[in-house]
Structures are given as structure tokens and as C-alpha cells.
Amino acid sequence: MCGIVGYAGKNKGISKVMTGLKSLEYRGYDSSGIAYMKNGKINIIKKEGPIVNLDSCLDYNEDIDIAISHTRWATHGVANDINAHPHRQGKITLVHNGIIENYNELKKELISKGYTFKSDTDTEIASAYLDYIYNKTGNILESLSELTNILKGSYAFNIICDDEPEVIYGMRKDSPLIVGLGDKENILASDIPAVLHITNKYVLLDNYDIVKLTNDKVLFYNKNLEEIKKEVKEFTFDKESISKNGYDHFMLKEINEEADVVKKHLNLYTENDKVKDIFDLSKYKSIDIVACGSASFAGQIGKYYIEKYKNIKVNVYYASEYRYQKNFFDKDTLVLLISQSGETADTLAALKLAKENNIDTLSIVNRKDSSIARESKYVIYTEAGIEIAVATTKAYLSQIIVLLLMAVKDTKYEEKAINDLKLLPNLITKYINEYDYQSIAKIVSEKEHVFYLGRGIDYYLAMEGSLKLKEISYIHSEAFQAGELKHGSISLIDKDFGVISIVTDKTISDKTISNLKEVSSRGAKVIAITNIREDFYDYSIEIDDYDEILNPLLVIVPMQMLAYNVAKLKGCDIDKPRNLAKSVTVE
Ligand code: F6R
């Protein structure tokens, strides 16, 4: 959440920092700002709205000494020019990702010392507090170390002090920060895409590490201000992974990558029709799957597979609830975290809770070296590649594949599942290219409200279909167990209400179809994504009919394509839906 980029270099610094910032726009885009030092003088420009608003005020040819920049996802204070970062107090100017939880208390203290504030943000308090400490110590490193004792919450900072006009300081706690090491230029950012135009060599900061960065030197310190050595890593990527590569949107590009994502997982995690030794679930009596949003819906499908094929009890929890509920941890429980970004604050907090209780933790994570991956006892990486569109597509599918492979490992379903997965890439390509989503998308786009209905695994799929639709098209949509509707919510149904149903599971499809008839009798037109060729819908997206393992997986791409086409018809900002950010690093 929020993107930060700091740049130290003598060649076209504005252009370099802004290229980085634009690549992080998926992390927040309600306002943005930059502070740069030129000949010892600071300039700050901040603009409400998307980064183009800031862009239009900048001279890309300007040579500067250093710059820090920010694209915001508002937490404290509305999105406007004043609340946008950077924030400046006294000699300190900084940008921040995270939340300072004790900002109110600190604000009172600072007001009593004579500070005044322009914005409603927690970040301005951090800049003032750092200025306050710096005025006492006269040493910025000491002041940063002291600040870690004062601030509660999470933070990644890029900081400029007026007295050191060629230096950027960085510091983090529970919010990612990486340093990109270039040739006579260095960069400090919240995510890897922001440094790749300069270098693929990077260092990951750990909690409480402090970095001091100039154009030709990067020094790292621990909290005690001892200089430390950090491992330099290399990021291997192809440039296409961070470009749209000819597609109108990243989301469409990423849906198109799903066939390859399946193949990659088969190559990586299977051999001779057997699942490789990825992780043995059998030793656990129960599993708590903990995740947020789509990752938790992938977890629901995992629950279905693991309970069915491994006969282990699985509960799925939203990470935002897990920490605050009563948990019955015992040593035979596995806590399984699922996260694309590996930085989701609630999921990370749930992981820490499990660790504190000495429970085994396994994470299924897409981003290598992310906090969740590093903190978990065991980790399995999904190989979806960088996902840029805010709405997840290929990462969600990849999570399900890993869960399925773990569920069938060493069971009689193992070979069948792998052979099914081998069929999936061609089917995905077929559903993207051969189905005309336009006419059904048009019907859905005219609805104000939609129920996404299903039973059992079809309901779990409907949860994702519904989220995908609402988050990018802004149509109100709810997933419902088809059988539950008549216990209250069916009163909403009339001819204008949208109903999309997922019907693949033949063991309960008769029941679902009866429920859909009840809806039809009340005037609603039913859209079905189904492998069942019976007369129970008004419109359909027909998928092929294989078996209980493959059929549910066939629904995923049609659901994603439908949501995409509805949002496109409505002219929505598909890759960056309003109010959302890709990586949710605040609770
Ligand atoms: C929806 C979506 C979100 C994420 C959720 C968890 O399309 O992408 O619901 O699934 O925010 O994010 P990660 O997987 O990064 O932990």
C-alpha cells in the first residue's frame, strides 16, 4: 500500500524517480508527490489524483542531487494536495508507507512543544518527531535509531535532512523497503518493479535496518548503529513481465498468462505423474488456512480439495479476524498462509501469532523474499510471475494449483489430478479466445445488483467471481450459497436483479438448479457458467465437462473474462480500481 521511491544520482533524477514511481502506481494512486534537492535547496510538489497530475508539473530533463517520491493510498486524511506526501517539518522531509499507530499521542506531545501541523496525516507527525529528536542530537543516524523506540505501527521511510543535501536515509518496520544498487546511482523503493529501470541488483532491508544512500555509496546500519553487511541479490526477469506487451490492460495480459502459469507449476512441482516432495500435509490433524480476499477464496478451494482427498479438517479464516478471535492452537495444527504479495499486513500478523504459539507455519507466496515468505517456517512459491493489475487473476489460479497438488500428493487421485492439469492450459486458451463474452457482459453491465450463486465448491468459486466483478466494475455483487437464498435474501430478487450461477458439481447440481428455478420464477434472468446442459438458465457460458477435479478449475478464466468485459464496457479503470491498492500493507 502506497509506493515510495527515493533516487540519488546526477543524471536526470526527476525522470528516474518518476519512472520508478509510475511502476508502483498499483500500490496507491489517489495522490502523489516528490521532494528533490538541487544545489542544497529543497523543492516539494504534491498533487491530488493520479500520478499524471504530478507529472505535468515536472521537468524531466532537470538534473538534481536526490529525490524522494510517493504515490498514496489514503489512510489518515482524505486524498488532497496537503495530505499527499512528502511531509516536511523543520529540517526533515519524508515519505512514508505504513501506519503510525500512536500518532495522536505523539501529536499532543509535539503540539505542547510548539509544533503545528498542516495535514491530517500520521506521517507528518513522524517527520515532526524526527525533527524534534534531531534538534537535540544533531545526528540523523542517532535520531533515526531513537525514533524506532518512539513510533508504534508500521513504516518504510525515505528521509531527507536539509543538513545533508546529497543523502537519502531509509528505515523500515513491517513494511517493505529495498535498495537498488546502480552504477553511480542508487535507488530506495517499496517494491522491486520500481528499481528495475536502474538495476537488477538489490538489497532487502530487515526491520529496524537503516540505510544511508548517496549516488556513489550505500551504507547499512542496525538499530545500534553498527555498520552491517547485507546480502546483494539479483532479480531475474524479462522486461515483458512489467509491460502490457500489447494488451489493453495488465489484467487481460495476466489472464492470458494463466495457461503458462499452469505449465510452469507442472514442470516445477511434478515429475513422472507424481507430485514432487513439496510439503507433506499428512502429519497434521487440522489446518487453519489464513488469508485475505481472493487468496482466502483460493484457500476455500484448498479446503475442499484437502478435506476430500487428504481427509484432514481445514478451517479457512480471514486474516483480519484471525488475530482477534479465539484460536485453539495445538501442536498438530498447521497454519497455512496464502498471499500473492507476501506483504499483506493482516496475513503477516496472523503468521506471527501462530509462531508465537509455536505452531508450524507454511506459506504459499508469489513474491520471493517477501516478509511472509521469510517469516514462515516453510514456504512454497507460486510461480505466477509479477502481477501488476490490482485484481488478482493468475496468482489466484496458481494458489489453487499448489493447494490441489498438496491435497492429492500420495493419494489415489495424484496421477489423475496431474493429467487433468495437463489439459488445463489449452482449455484456458480456448475460453479466452473462443468465447464471446460481450453479450453476457452487456447484460451484467446494466445491473445494479448481482448475486453470484453456487453450492459447495461452486459457491467457493462464486466468492471469487463476485469479488472480481464488484472490484473492477463497481457493480454491487454478493456471493451466496444457492440454498441459503430463500432464508431471507430472496426478497431482493426481481426482474432487474442480476443472477450469475456456477454449476459444475454434479453431486449437488440438482439442488442448485431447483434454487435457480426459484429465482427465475421471481422474474430474474439467470446466467450460468456451467458444464451441465439442461434447461435451467437464460444465458450461459458453457464449459467442458471432465471430472470433479478439473471441472471447477474451468470456471476460473470465464469468471475473470466476464468481470473484465463488464468493467471494460462500463469504462472503468480496470487495472487500478478506485479505492484499492495491490499490496495491502496496513491492517
Ligand atoms: C482481489 C485481490 C485481493 C487480494 C488480497 C490479498 O482481486 O487481489 O483480494 O487477494 O488483498 O492479497 P495478497 O494475496 O497479496 O495477500
Alpha-carbon distance between the two ends: 10 Å
| Beta fraction | 15-25%
- CATH topology category name of the largest domain: Glutamine Phosphoribosylpyrophosphate, subunit 1, domain 1
The main pleated sheet reads as: 8 strands, antiparallel
Q: In terms of per-residue confidence, which ranges show pLDDT below 50 for 5 or more consecutive residues? A: none
Count the domains: 3
Q: State the helix count.
A: 18
The average pLDDT score comes to 95
Assigned CATH class of the largest domain: Alpha Beta
Structural class by secondary-structure content: alpha/beta
Helix content: 25-40%
CATH architecture of the largest domain: 4-Layer Sandwich
Q: CATH superfamily membership of the largest domain, which one?
A: Aminohydrolase, N-terminal nucleophile (Ntn) domain
Give the strand order, joined by hyphens, for the main sheet: 3-2-4-1-10-9-11-15
- Form type: globular
Tell me the number of strands. 27
